[in-house]
Design brief:
four-stranded antiparallel sheet; alpha+beta; Alpha-Beta Plaits; globular; 7 helices; binds adenosine-3',5'-cyclic-monophosphate
């Protein structure tokens, strides 16, 4: 059981003015933000972050979308963080996301799905060190 996960509020949710509402959902669900930055991925950084998906037909669409505008990147702390955060955000496809989940409330499509959440403890570690140095993590 992990106590940390990595998230991004994606460009669609930033463009649509949902940063505050999404952070409120994260706080209300008991996650502590231990690192956070407002930034924008270059196309090259997006390709690197999502390299495990490079064979997928949606890869170009994904990296173009993820680099088109600002994002919030954050590390969240809570018991059982990876699993509980995936529960909070809901299914990748917002039309299948449970009522009240972040993607149900704020995502518009499978590609533009408002938030990212790590899918394993191992990936959470890789993703947090992709975006943050140890000095930027305030646990
Ligand atoms: P996420 O789980 O954060 O990371 C991988 C992303 O790929 C996923 O969110 C979606 O944004 C995107 N994705 C997954 N499946 C599809 C698809 N079928 N079409 C377009 N984008 C997708």
């Amino acid at each position: 059981m992990s106590n940390r996960t990595f998230t991004m509020i994606k460009p669609d949710a930033v463009e649509n003015g949902h940063i505050g509402a999404i952070l409120e959902k994260i706080n209300s669900a008991g996650f502590k933000i231990i690192a956070m930055k407002y930034t924008q991925l270059s196309l090259e950084k997006a390709e690197k972050f999502y390299e495990t998906h490079s064979d997928r037909p949606f890869f170009n669409e994904l990296v173009t979308f993820m680099s088109r505008g600002p994002i919030i990147a954050a590390i969240l702390e809570k018991d059982n963080a990876v699993e509980d955060f995936r529960e909070l955000i809901g299914s990748t496809n917002p039309s299948e996301a449970k009522e009240g989940t972040i993607r149900n409330l704020f995502a518009t499509s499978m590609g533009e799905n408002a938030v990212h959440g790590s899918d394993s403890d191992e990936n959470a570690k890789i993703e947090e060190s992709f975006h943050f140095t140890s000095e930027e993590i305030l646990s």
